[in-house]
Amino acid sequence: MSSLKKCVECVKRHKNFLITAHVNLEGDALGSQLAFYKLLKKLGKNAVIVNDDDTPYEYGFLPQKNKIKRFKTGMKNIKFDCFAVLDCSGLSRTGKVYTINKDKKPILNIDHHISNEKFGDVNWIEPAASSCSEMIYKLYKKLRVPFDRESATMLYAGMLTDTGSFHYPNTNSFTHKAVSELLKHNLDIARIYKSVYENIPLRDMKFLSAILPGIKLEAGGKIAYFVIKRNALKNKKLSFDLSEHLLSFARSIKGVEVVLLFKENLRARGEIRINLRSQGKVDVNKIASLFGGGGHKTASGATIHGSIQTIKRKVLARIKMSLK
Amino acid sequence: MSSLKKCVECVKRHKNFLITAHVNLEGDALGSQLAFYKLLKKLGKNAVIVNDDDTPYEYGFLPQKNKIKRFKTGMKNIKFDCFAVLDCSGLSRTGKVYTINKDKKPILNIDHHISNEKFGDVNWIEPAASSCSEMIYKLYKKLRVPFDRESATMLYAGMLTDTGSFHYPNTNSFTHKAVSELLKHNLDIARIYKSVYENIPLRDMKFLSAILPGIKLEAGGKIAYFVIKRNALKNKKLSFDLSEHLLSFARSIKGVEVVLLFKENLRARGEIRINLRSQGKVDVNKIASLFGGGGHKTASGATIHGSIQTIKRKVLARIKMSLK
Q1: Which domains does chain A have, with CATH numbers?
Q2: Would you state the pLDDT for residue A240?
């Protein structure tokens, strides 16, 4: 039986769902879980969404976002018989939400990360899908649940953001076909784009423009990276994750193959977050996994303990090897 | 008879075509004319492409780009019985290329600009189309000429660039359906995107990151603008027009309605070039036309004589009035 079919049976079999997604919420996590929530409701099921993070303000346009509950320790009175985890390569990516499932109710794992750990009782993993939202789109089709403007907006948000506005290599013929169908529901794509990408507070933009000149190049210009130290982040109260903007700025440079961001974690001393993007020649998922992280071939991340200098040296050396 | 049908008859009726597009060549002008050229060749016709500008280096990935001839005064020995003008709202937008048609051979005008002046003997104008490339796509379908990797790449390039990677409001369900079909031909979309958008020489990026912190805001943050003086531009040898990047950076700020760039012209003292972009509430075409320029409601420009201080003051005052 195909994994999609197993997922369909799992959905049919259960009545009460708890839905969660990964921490550092973004368009695909939010869009896919809201669309899945709506699908379950249309099938007459009960569902509740719990996330370990607040919904970022740039996703304020998402319909039914007020249905999302923020995780609290001791969330006991949530009744569910299926624990649905979306867009997460591992259970720990849910933050603390997985602790709610202390009674070990069946886990439904829906994800498109190649690095997925298959932690579910039912695992529907499609690394070829552009996004988890694309998979939920397929679930609607399989279950013959028609789209409306709300579900189309949710799924569009996920596909838009996980494909970087349809230009990452994960974008395929099927993605565009799906979006073509979603756009029949009169979506306000300009508003959605503005909300997600053109909604950066001025102080964040000032911070961003102060960091940009610090870009460094290596390997004859094939690697571009930024280093952000604790001191630079302190007292900034950034309301927006600028990583994507920095990575995209670095990627705009002619000849660049791999871009990176090394960031000292504000909350945990000695902890470095690295984000990696590749133009395709270097498999950054492989590199991230050497350092205990993972993701996709062209977009990955890892959290490493150590000094930023040592980590920088090691990671750059590893990328240079891959470039040869 | 529909305009598309008239276009089809015009294509069938003629044997030798001269194809041109607008000056300041970009993806849609190049993609649509190359795809049209290829279509004619497949139909057993003769065709030649003449443009008044060189093909920008970021379009180096386009198949058959070496078929494009650069206009020269006295181009006499080109034999053609149909003068095909693509993606041009008026004949003068072809630069000097229209002067080749001194014998007044029938003009085929294929365009998607709402401001098109209908200068052709056959005018096929579709303002609802995302791009001229989308129209050439329709022509392939109508004439039942199958796509291959080359024609699909050409048309994809046009649709990608004229929709700003599928996020401008001109992007519709049909656009995505067409792209879905084109992507079946194994296109290297990452390479195409990198070539067009992520191909900025390092020195240009350094110049850009030096300008960014100089952004100014007015009208309670509803207007964002940059001023670039002659001195900043001298001896820079910029190979890339960074205006779009600056404007897009400014547009990313939360709450911004209108973004502007004031630039002293390097070649003509006392001449200021202004570029305006609006999120939709302010009609910048109206404002630009007050200063002798024009364009679209959300994207316009003007060249004004005077001091940059005076011009800045006048233009900003006019925008503030429109914001009220």
Answers
A1: 3-197 (3.90.1640.10), 202-323 (3.10.310.30)
A2: 54
Q: Is the pLDDT score of B236 beyond 70?
A: no
Angle between helices A149-162 and A189-197 (to 10 degrees): 50
How confident is residue B297, by pLDDT bands cut at 50, 70 and 90? confident
Average pLDDT, chain B: 93
| Alpha carbon distance B36, B32 (integer Å) | 6
Q: Does B297 touch chain A (CB under 8 A)?
A: no
Instruction: State how far the Cα of B100 lies from the Cα of B265, in Å rounded to an integer.
Output: 31
**Are A165 and B160 a contacting pair at CB < 8 A?**
no
**Residues of B (19-48) whose Cβ lies below 8 Å from A:** none
Cβ distance B190 to A205 less than 8 Å, yes or no, reads: no
**pLDDT of A239:** 53
Contacts of A166 in chain B (CB under 8 A): 165-166, 179
Listed residue (B241, B239, B250) closest to B212, CA to CA = B250
Using an 8 Å CB-CB cutoff, list chain A residues near B172.
183
Residue labelled with tokens 């977009």: A299
Enclosing H/E stretch for A127: none
Q: How many angstroms separate the CA of residue A30 from the nearest CA in chain B?
A: 20
Residues of A in contact with B212 (CB under 8 A): 209, 212
Question: pLDDT at position B267, please?
Answer: 77
Find, among B252, B300, B306, the residue nearest to B276 by Cα.
B300
Report which DSSP code applies to A94: G
ipTM: 0.89
- Spell out which residues of chain B touch residue A210, defining contact as CB-CB under 8 Å: 213
- One-letter amino acid identity for B190? A
**pLDDT class for B240, splitting at 50, 70, 90?**
low
Q: Which of A57, A63, A66, A51 is nearest to A21 (CA)?
A: A51
Q: How far is A182 from chain B (nearest CA, A)?
A: 8
Beta strand extents in A208-270 (DSSP E only)? 216-218, 223-228, 258-264
Contact A176 B176 (CB under 8 A): yes
pLDDT at A134 > cutoff 90: yes
Of the candidates B2, B14, B5, the one whose C-alpha atom is nearest the C-alpha of residue B40 is: B14
Q: Is the dihedral of CA A10, A12, A16, A19 positive or negative?
A: positive
CB proximity A212 to B under 8 Å: yes
Structure tokens at A30: 């939010």
Does residue A280 belong to the interface with chain B, where contact is any CB pair within 8 Å? yes
Please list every residue in chain B whose beta carbon sits closer than 8 Å to the beta carbon of residue A209. 209, 212-213, 215, 249
Q: Is residue B320 a contact partner of residue B282, using CB atoms and an 8 Å limit?
A: no
Helix (H) and strand (E) counts in chain A: 11, 12
Q: Do the beta carbons of residue A84 and residue A55 sit within 8 Å?
A: no
pLDDT at B259 over 70: yes
**Termini Cα distance of chain A:** 42
Provide the pLDDT confidence category of residue B238 given band limits of 50, 70 and 90.
Answer: low
Q: B79 with B59: CB under 8 angstroms?
A: no
CA A108 to chain centre: 18
State whether B205 and A174 contact (CB < 8 Å). Answer: no
Dihedral sign for Cα atoms in the order A241, A246, A249, A253: negative
The answer to whether the CB of A284 falls within 8 A of the CB of A114 is no
Chain B residues within 8 A of A251 when measuring between CB atoms? 198
Alpha-carbon distance of A284 to A293, in angstroms, equals: 10
